[in-house]
């Protein structure tokens, strides 16, 4: 029983890559300008590209990643073949605010979003939902 558990844990831990400074450095070097990552993954589908096309899209030729001693900040410095620095900014995201017209089924909910047959409040519950994209 323990062996099965051990295999499952090892399998799951191998599936998750550790986000070390070397990992970030390699991801910077792997960046391909003009191409999208495979959806939900951190790599490109290069199956339809030639080696020359892949090499041309890799505009970052030099990269180094350094972490603050307290691990609160990661610096990645990158440059192209002319050793010209490339600036990348990572900032706090903007807050998204929406105004919506909501249509509802009056045989299921009242005008306050409360279910008629159970007094549950699915509209309030839905407003609390927050989606986070994970890679």
Question: What attributes characterize this protein structure?
Answer:
3-stranded antiparallel β-sheet; 135 residues; alpha+beta
Give a verbal description of the structure.
The protein is α+β, with helices and mostly antiparallel strands. The protein starts with a helix and ends in an 8-residue tail after the last helix. The relative contact order is 0.09. Helices cover 27% and strands 10% of the residues. It has helices at residues 2-15, 21-30, 51-57, 122-127, and strands spanning 62-67, 74-79, 85-86. Strand 1 and strand 2 (74-79) form a beta hairpin. Strands 1-2-3 form a 3-stranded antiparallel beta sheet, with helices on one face. The model has no long low-confidence stretch (mean pLDDT 80). It has 4 helices and 3 strands; from the N terminus they run αααβββα.
Give a concise summary.
Helix content is 27%, strand content 10%. It has helices spanning 2-15, 21-30, 51-57, 122-127; strands at 62-67, 74-79, 85-86. Strand 2 and strand 3 form a beta hairpin.
Characterize the overall form: elongated
The secondary structure category is alpha+beta
Helical stretch count?
A: 4
The order of strands across the largest sheet is 1-2-3
Unreliable segments of 5+ consecutive residues: none
**How is the main sheet built?**
3 strands, antiparallel
How much helical structure, as a percent, in the residues? 25-40%
